[in-house]
Give the backbone structure.
Amino acid sequence: MKLVYFARVREAMGSDGEEMEFPASVLTVGDAIDWLAAQSPRHAEAFADRSKLRFALDQRMVKFDAPVTGATEFAIFPPVTGG
Amino acid sequence: MIRVSVQREAFDIAAETLALEAAGVGAVATFTGIVRGDDGVTAIELEHYPGMTEASLNDICAIAQERWGLTGCTIIHRVGRMKVGEPIVLVVTASPHRAAALEACAFLIDRLKTDAPFWKREYRGDVAQWVEQKTSDVERGQSWDG
């Protein structure tokens, strides 16, 4: 799955995205964040404060309980601040 | 008629308004957001999620068009770096009557703030800081539900 990072998440990761294959145990967005946070100290820090993370699957906003299976693009970013 | 643009350049408010007036409507409402110089802010920088941004702006325009029976709806949002006093965002709505145009315009700017993937960074001289989402903005966005 293609992961994309924006704003503070992109800066914390030092990258605008990466390719990642989730194990079969990862069913939801929440599972994916838990799994990602265990991949490296950098991931752990970037995804530490779950209240400051928002998500989009294939460019649609979703919540923690959304199923990730079948999605091709998974975006992780802080709460939006446009306008 | 829906027109959505995410661009670095400034926009021409008169030209955008005229384009919706040309549909022969009774009312056109506009909202322009301008960079504020709060607390020593000298500039801001806007980042966005290309593709999703345009899709989410199109979605809220389609909702407004349906709900208020608009004859036209335009959203232009700038990205990149802007100085204090520069325009950031323009919303234009057109309808036969003023109430629909005004309400839809308010709906669009409120929902843009909660639905569209933009992130704003404030500059005070060379020091940059990400802007936190305001609870009041989230509540305003949700107030249009139902």
